[in-house]
Structures are given as structure tokens and as C-alpha cells.
């Protein structure tokens, strides 16, 4: 960490640094406090994260950096925004105030969706990267169908779910292993209905869950963690946030969608697409955990993973017959 800080202003070495976690990706974040109370965030990115991809994400973030809820990337003394040290990528950004809310009120839900609309209005006009068409098949739909195919191939060769040393995680894996064959065929059928539909695509967050939206009062003070950002349709952001924030409550989902639409988003976002991406993303999350665990990826916090899988299972089980009525 000292070698990374030396690439920046000497002021950083005099700050008080504390680890504030990182999440399942393998990233680690530190908060650096100055005597005047200001703070910055230093992030060590997951092993293997591509430097060129991080540079593109920084380019997109700089294009919308005047939005008050977007962290500003701080360049080092050489003017670069990415530092490489000990085989990992690091970056520095401003620290945003506020606290996350996993069960936001309607007021906060609407505020978050208005912020997403504002974010999408700005990213929709960022010049497209070479080879990235403005109109394309929905990337999130393609990703889910590919994941479902990989999972079905894996399950066809495995008669039992993966087993770990954690009893609670084993129970979640067993339930997911039993439920997914009931859910994936219908979800795959509905996803296929969206194949071939050419819709607008531009930089989206793609993983904006409730822990990534920070509030001060009923206002959005920050939207953090841009590591999943990619070209996609904005429905993917609404599905990720509203799915987590409303846990499938149709009335509250409509509160968020109405706030988004009244804020003048750059494109129309069909409610049925949001619901489809939410449900298929939930099923895909379960499938991905089973594939990761089966492949032997280390699980640093199995208790938290088991809780997350339990929430996903509850979401899918709430749908009649285990599948959503989407079309």
C-alpha cells in the first residue's frame, strides 16, 4: 500500500487509513482521513482485472464526474488514474457521504431511480467505443442465456450439488440445485423472446444494488462501485436496484419506475423487461454461485454467501410455480 501511496501526493501518506472491506469480488477498499475531516477511497482491484477495462470505466466516470453522486477519480503525480503494484491495479477516488439502505422508503426509492435516470441521460451521449453499436441485442439477455446454458451443461453432468464445509451454505446449494431446473426453462424461453430486438445500449452500472446507493436524508448522496460497468440497456440497472430494494413488491417497483420515467430518461424502459432481468438475474446469481463453488473458488465468507443465496431462493419461490409471469 505504501508503494501505491507514493505515486500520489505526499499528503496521502499523512492520512489515517482504515480498511472498509471490499465484497465478494476480491477487491479491498481503504478510507483515508485527513485532519480536516475530508476523505478519499483507495481501492485494490480484484486479481486479474484488466487494466484496459479499468481505464475505460475511468473514462466513463470522468464524463459524468460533475454529477454530485458520482465519485471523482484522482490522478496520480504522472497524471494516470491507474496504479499497478504487486500484480494488482489500484485507483484513488473521492469519498462520498451517506449510508446505504437495504429497505428504502418510497421517497428514497424514487430518489434513487431519479439519480439513475440522470446518470443514464449523461452516459447515453458518451461517444460509443469502436465496435460498440448504439443499437444492439440486449447484452444482459445474451449474458443470462449463456450462463443458463453453462449451468444446464454442468448440472447434466452432476447428480448432486457441490458440498462445502459450511452447513448453511450446503443447504442453500441443495435448494438451488433442486429449484433451478424448474425455473430456468421458462426464464430462458422468455429471454429468447427478446433476442433479435435491437435496442439502445450505452454505459450502465450493471451492479447497482442497495449497498451501492448512499443516502443523506431522502436524497442520494453517492452511487459507488463502478467495477461492473459495461455497455448495456438501462433496464439492467433498474432491475438490479429495484429487485433488491423492493424484493418483488409490484407496487413499490412501480413507484421506482414511475419516478424514473418522470425524470426524462434517454430511452423507454419496458416494465416487463425490468421484471424479466430481475428474475433471470436472481436465477443467474444462484447458478453462478453453484458453478463457482463447484469449481473450487475460495469462499471467504460462506455465512454471508448462504444468506444471499437464501434471499435469492425466496425471491424465486415467491413466483407462482417458481417462474414469473412476464409476457
Helix-strand layout with pairing:
Layout (H helix, E strand, L loop, with lengths): L1 H4 L10 E4 L8 E6 L5 E6 L6 H13 L19 E3 L2 E7 L4 E2 L5 H18 L11 E2 L2 H18 L10 H28 L4 E2 L1 E3 L8 E4 L2 E5 L6 E3 L2 H12 L3 H13 L8 H24 L7 H16 L10
Antiparallel strand pairs: 1-2, 2-3, 3-5, 4-5, 6-10, 7-8, 9-12, 10-11
Helix pairs in contact: 3-7, 4-5, 4-8, 5-8, 5-9, 6-7, 6-8, 8-9
List keywords for this structure.
disordered C terminus, 327 residues, 12 strands, three-stranded antiparallel sheet, alpha+beta, single chain
- Content of β-strand: 5-15%
Computed over alpha carbons, the radius of gyration is 20 Å
The N- and C-terminal alpha carbons lie at a distance of 51 Å
The whole-number mean of residue pLDDT values reads: 93
3D structure, described in words:
- By secondary structure, the chain is α+β, with helices and mostly antiparallel strands.
- Helices cover 45% and strands 14% of the residues.
- The strands form four sheets. The protein has a five-stranded antiparallel sheet with strand order 1-2-3-5-4, with no helix packed on it. A three-stranded antiparallel sheet has the order 6-10-11, covered by helices on one side.
- It is globular, with a radius of gyration of 20 Å.
- It starts with a helix and ends in a 10-residue tail after the last helix.
- The relative contact order is 0.14.
In brief:
With 327 residues, the chain is α+β, with helices and mostly antiparallel strands. It has nine helices and twelve strands.
Amino acid at each position: 500500500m505504501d508503494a501505491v501511496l507514493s505515486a500520489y501526493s505526499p499528503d496521502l501518506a499523512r492520512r489515517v487509513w482504515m480498511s472498509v472491506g471490499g465484497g465478494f469480488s476480491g477487491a479491498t477498499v481503504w478510507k483515508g482521513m485527513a485532519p480536516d475531516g475530508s476523505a478519499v477511497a483507495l481501492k485494490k482491484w480484484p486479481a486479474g482485472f484488466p487494466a484496459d477495462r479499468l481505464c475505460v470505466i475511468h473514462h466513463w466516470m470522468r464524463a459524468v464526474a460533475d454529477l454530485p453522486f458520482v465519485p471523482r477519480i484522482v490522478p496520480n503525480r504522472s497524471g494516470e488514474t491507474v496504479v499497478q503494484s504487486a500484480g494488482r491495479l489500484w485507483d484513488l477516488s473521492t469519498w462520498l457521504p451517506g449510508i446505504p439502505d437495504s429497505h428504502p422508503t418510497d421517497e428514497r426509492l424514487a430518489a434513487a431511480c431519479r439519480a439513475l435516470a440522470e446518470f443514464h441521460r449523461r452516459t447515453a451521449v458518451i461517444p460509443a467505443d469502436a465496435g460498440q453499436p448504439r443499437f444492439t441485442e440486449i447484452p444482459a439477455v445474451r449474458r443470462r442465456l449463456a450462463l443458463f446454458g453453462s449451468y444446464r451443461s454442468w448440472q447434466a453432468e452432476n447428480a448432486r450439488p457441490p458440498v462445502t464445509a459450511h452447513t448453511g451454505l450446503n443447504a442453500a446449494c441443495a435448494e438451488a440445485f433442486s429449484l433451478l431446473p424448474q425455473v430456468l426453462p421458462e426464464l430462458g424461453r422468455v429471454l429468447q423472446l427478446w433476442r433479435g430486438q435491437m435496442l439502445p445500449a450505452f454505459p450502465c452500472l450493471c451492479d447497482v444494488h442497495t449497498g451501492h446507493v448512499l443516502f443523506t436524508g431522502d436524497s442520494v448522496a453517492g452511487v459507488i462501485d463502478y467495477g461492473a460497468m459495461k455497455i448495456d440497456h438501462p433496464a439492467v440497472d433498474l432491475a438490479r436496484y429495484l429487485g433488491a430494494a423492493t424484493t418483488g413488491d409490484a407496487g413499490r417497483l412501480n413507484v421506482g419506475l414511475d419516478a424514473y420515467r418522470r425524470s426524462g430518461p434517454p430511452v423507454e424502459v419496458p416494465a416487463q423487461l425490468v421484471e424479466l432481468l430481475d428474475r433471470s438475474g436472481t436465477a443467474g446469481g444462484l447458478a453462478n454461485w453453484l458453478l463457482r463453488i463447484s469449481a473450487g473458488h475460495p469462499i471467504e465468507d460462506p455465512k454471508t454467501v448462504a444468506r444471499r443465496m437464501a434471499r435469492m431462493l425466496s425471491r424465486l419461490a415467491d413466483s407462482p410455480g417458481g417462474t414469473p409471469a412476464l409476457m
